[in-house]
Design a protein that fits this description.
The protein is α/β, with parallel strands linked by helices and 939 residues long. It is 42% helix and 15% strand. Helix 1 (2-11) packs antiparallel against helix 3.
């Protein structure tokens, strides 16, 4: 009955779409990056602080525990709930630059990398730099006291905190940066402030505990609460705000943080030094503590062996023995000269220790960092399906780091974790060790439990280190908090919890847990499902770039549900309802662009799985698809005719009546016909000469000064051949011809162009063979038209280029999308007069995947005074025909776009015709190909 009361009260306050009660969706949305699983009874997406306050009051009234979650990328089980899981809408992405960039105010929904992007023009960044910074959010960064490779302890969340807005369990709000709020808080909660002051007094009177606290926080430490706040600060408000850092949602809700920022030096270099053994590497690390280094990453011999032979890595890695140990060192400088001086100083200091190989400092260090970034995927690649990859996170006193590494390696051998590797932030004595673990066998669970007992004894007791240096205590290390801190430290933490959360409703079981086996309970199953996604560890790095994440499911959530569906089908459990749900949530609303693969640490393209499932779903339509591919010219003519009829019907019936008719038919037929878009254009009126069989149409649109040495093969995409433009604008092929003429290019059009297609419409439906046939046909036509690769090829739509390049083109074809072609082949021959306007620019997902975003931006900036690339839109969600067949995906992906279009902005640009239709509808301004912009400013 409590859940009925909860639902009724909540739905009187928030829209139904922001309450998740379906059991399968609760499973999907309740998953985080840890190896634990709890399924929440309810998930709520809240839009404001008032809503969070309301839900907390409701949970108190009904005695329901609740958990806060930001991005769900934490690793220790601190973002899970079997009761109420509170998540945030995109309304929590606000930020304010303060004091010229010296500080920044951030709401909990801001992604860490976005915060750094806001600060970059000012030469600043936030201190914390976790490996998940492109996905994790400030709420989690603060609640877990995140740090990272470069920030050490001095620049973590705790030490860079300036002010905080927080909400306590009883509904009290405090803005510590506002004197009026502080005064009001003192009036409303004098008991709490007195309690915090009393705790500080007790700690300072206990010299042994004070000494332990100082020792523990000399290291990186996120085990338990940040009780160093009790000795670092005298004002109880400052104690409170610093206790909130690293509290993992167990003491209150962090609504905003104001952080002191740190310099982002413009000049950086990295070098790789390989030492004879761990001892030499660790001695060098101790020596480098006084050196001007930004990061020192340690990688043991097993780590190096795991990436040996990978493309682009130094050859000597394959010849190293397991005793070797490497330090990857990064140095920053305010100037090139300062950088060189510091690199030389570091090399001189490291030369005192025995090295067996090295790569000197270089500013082109991507390849070196690929070694470090490749370690986790290397372990993931060798794990058995059904197991997970576990990353543990400890810290040793730096002076005993070599002993600590040796101790861990001995435990790997003792417990048969032969694949385990060690790497980490050596300057802080912070080591990560990665190993694979199965939880479907009680013997394996027992092995893991015994191993963790031994690790805890080694780290916390023998060496006085930290059992959690930067990943947070969570459920994973909660049973060991007392082992690390002792009875007095544990008692202190219990007093803090009782003072701030007397009912124990905030994230129970996290940090403080009386069950000594809590870390062995609620272990997440990883059932086999499909080889494409079986390596997924559900880290959530993919979610930030997914266009469907607010509409249906993210890639992580799709994989969770597909695994569950596979498990049920194997075990014979009922799955009809899940199949039905997944058909829309998982399959129909996936854009399948592959952006998730670029963020995934093991390169999983969830879209590939979805296309595979679509192949099964659309199998019966393959004969029709094959026929349409064989008669593609006729299909495009029919499509143009249909668009023409739409225009006639709109004039006869009126656009409003036509919209009602189309939408009515769509509803009655189960959404089978395409939706009517206000920005759906009429047909393209341009007609291409077909040329002779086996030949090419040439000489079209010859420009002034065109010569036989200045020719280009131009392929208009099928979308460009079918769709016209809005508001009477010329067709895209006309604009391309105009631009090429201005640049003095001779234009070559492939023979029988109307029948050519890259195959993407078929590939998106999983019809691989048909798609491959069309791609091969197109590649051959371009090979002939380009005179066997002599001339460059321009495709006016970016996704077509990506589709072509994803196959084995061979033969030396040089294929370009618009921006890269303009930069390389046209700009040197054009005289531009940039417009004095602000323009919008959408960088398509295909351009992002091909690494062309900066080229698009460069072209736009060469043509307009100001160019705005809207935030948080990695993909527009139109996704071929999805904008017509599933228009809600396009709407969800572009929900934040209208507010980002300035009132004086009149036009936007991109490089995909279908994307431009959806962008035009949701932005409220017309979008055209970026080639229109170039043609507009070219004299």
């Amino acid at each position: 009955m409590r859940w009925n009361e909860f639902d009724a009260a909540l739905l009187a306050r928030i829209p139904p779409a922001r309450l998740v009660s379906d059991p399968d969706l609760r499973l999907a949305h309740g998953t985080d990056a840890s190896f634990y699983r709890l399924v929440p009874e309810r998930i709520v997406r809240l839009d404001s602080l008032d809503e969070v306050r309301f839900v907390l009051a409701l949970c108190r009234e009904l005695n329901l525990p609740c958990t806060f979650r930001a991005a769900g990328t934490s690793l220790s089980g601190q973002a899970l709930s079997d009761s109420v899981l509170i998540t945030l809408t995109d309304s929590w992405r606000g930020h304010r630059i303060l004091d010229g960039g010296a500080r920044i105010a951030l709401q909990p929904g801001v992604i860490g990398a976005d915060a750094n992007r806001y600060l970059a023009p000012l030469g600043r960044k936030i201190g914390p730099d976790p490996a998940s910074i492109n996905a994790c959010k400030l709420g989690g960064i603060a609640a877990n006291n995140a740090s990272g490779m470069c920030c050490g302890t001095a620049h973590n969340s705790y030490h860079t905190l300036y002010a905080m807005t927080l909400l306590l369990a009883d509904g009290t709000v405090l803005d510590s940066g506002n004197p009026h709020s502080r005064a009001a808080f003192a009036q409303s909660r004098p008991d709490l402030l007195a309690g915090l002051s009393s705790l500080r007094t007790d700690v300072l009177a206990n010299t042994e505990l004070t000494a332990k606290i100082r020792h523990k926080y000399r290291l990186k430490n996120t085990t338990g609460y940040a009780i160093n706040a009790l000795i670092d600060h005298a004002d109880p408000v400052d104690i409170l705000t610093h206790l909130m850092i690293g509290s993992e949602g167990t003491l209150g809700f962090i609504a905003e943080v104001v952080l002191d920022t740190v310099p982002e030096h413009p000049h950086k270099a990295s070098g790789l030094l390989v030492f004879r053994d761990v001892e030499q590497a660790c001695l060098a690390t101790s020596h480098l503590k006084s050196a001007p280094v930004a990061a020192v990453e340690l990688m043991d011999g097993r780590s190096l062996r795991s990436v040996a032979g990978k493309p682009g890595l130094p050859d000597f890695i394959e010849r190293l023995d397991l005793a070797a140990c490497a330090l990857l060192i990064e140095v920053h400088g305010e100037s090139k000269e300062a950088l060189v001086d510091r690199c030389e100083q570091v090399m001189g200091m490291a030369a005192e220790f025995v090295q067996v190989a090295s790569v000197p400092f270089t500013r082109e260090s991507t390849g070196l960092w690929a070694i470090r970034k490749g370690l986790f995927p290397a372990v993931g690649a060798v794990r058995t399906t059904g197991t997970t990859v576990i990353i543990e996170d400890v810290a040793f006193p730096v002076e005993r780091l070599a002993e600590g590494v040796a101790g861990l390696q001995a435990l790997f051998d003792e417990f048969a974790y032969h694949e385990a590797i060690i790497f980490g932030h050596a300057l802080e004595g912070n080591l990560h060790f990665v190993f694979t673990q199965g939880f479907d066998d009680p013997a394996q669970v027992a092995r893991y439990g015994a191993f963790m007992d031994a690790v805890a004894e080694l780290v916390a007791v023998r060496f006085g280190g930290s059992l959690k240096a930067e990943h947070g205590t969570g459920r994973n290390m909660a049973p060991y908090v007392e082992l690390e801190w002792g009875p007095e430290g544990m008692a202190l933490m219990r007093r803090i919890k009782a003072l701030l959360d007397p009912d124990g409703l905030l994230n129970p079981g996290v940090i403080i847990n009386d069950d000594p086996k809590a870390h062995l309970a609620h272990l997440k199953p990883m059932p086999a499902s499909d080889a494409i996604v079986d390596p997924c560890i559900e880290c959530g790095f993919c979610e930030a770039v997914c266009p469907s994440r607010t509409l249906s499911l993210s890639p992580r959530q799709r994989i969770v549900l597909y695994r569950e569906l596979s498990r049920r089908e194997r075990s014979g459990e009922p799955s009809r309802e899940l199949v039905r749900l997944f058909d829309y949530q998982g399959i129909d609303t996936c854009a399948a662009t592959g952006l998730c693969a670029d963020r995934c640490p093991v390169g999983i393209n969830t879209g590939s799985l979805i296309k595979k499932l679509r192949r099964e779903k659309y199998q019966r339509f393959v004969p029709i698809a094959r026929w349409s591919a064989d008669h593609f010219a006729g299909v495009t003519r029919t499509a143009r005719s249909a668009l023409g009829l739409k225009g006639i019907a709109g004039k006869r019936l009126g656009e409003k009546a036509l919209a009602g008719l189309v939408n009515g038919v769509r509803r009655a037929s189960g959404q089978r016909p395409p939706a009517r878009l206000p920005t759906l254009p009429g047909p393209s009126r341009y007609r291409w000469p077909q040329g002779e069989p086996g030949g090419a149409s040439t000489g079209i649109g010859d420009g002034h000064g065109a010569t036989s040495e200045r020719a280009v093969v131009y392929l208009p995409s099928c979308a460009s051949r079918v769709f016209g433009q809005q508001a009477g604008a010329p067709s895209l092929p006309q604009v391309v011809q105009s631009l090429l003429k201005k640049a003095g290019c001779r234009v070559i059009v492939p023979a029988r162009v109307e029948g050519l297609c890259c195959g993407m419409p078929y590939d998106s439906k999983g019809m691989v063979e048909v798609a491959q046939t069309k791609r091969t046909e197109l590649a051959e036509a371009l090979w002939q038209a380009s005179e066997q690769g002599r001339w460059p090829v321009l495709l006016d739509t970016s996704p077509c280029v990506q589709r072509l390049l994803s196959g084995a083109l061979g033969k030396g074809l040089r294929v370009f999308e618009p921006s890269a072609f303009v930069l390389e082949h046209l700009l040197p021959h054009l005289d531009l007069a940039p417009i004095d306007e602000t323009v919008m620019l959408h960088i398509t997902c295909s351009s992002r995947r091909m690494g062309l975003g900066e080229k698009m931006l460069a072209v736009a900036r060469a043509c307009a005074r100001e160019v705005i690339v809207p935030e948080h839109i990695q993909c527009c969600g139109f996704a071929g025909d999805k904008g017509l067949m599933t228009p809600e995906l396009n709407a969800a992906a572009l929900a934040s776009l209208p507010a980002q279009v300035p009132t004086d902005c009149r036009q936007g640009f991109s490089n995909s015709r279908t994307c431009e239709m959806g962008l035009s509808q949701h932005a409220g301004i017309p979008y055209h190909s970026i080639l229109y912009l170039v043609d507009q400013v070219a004299k």
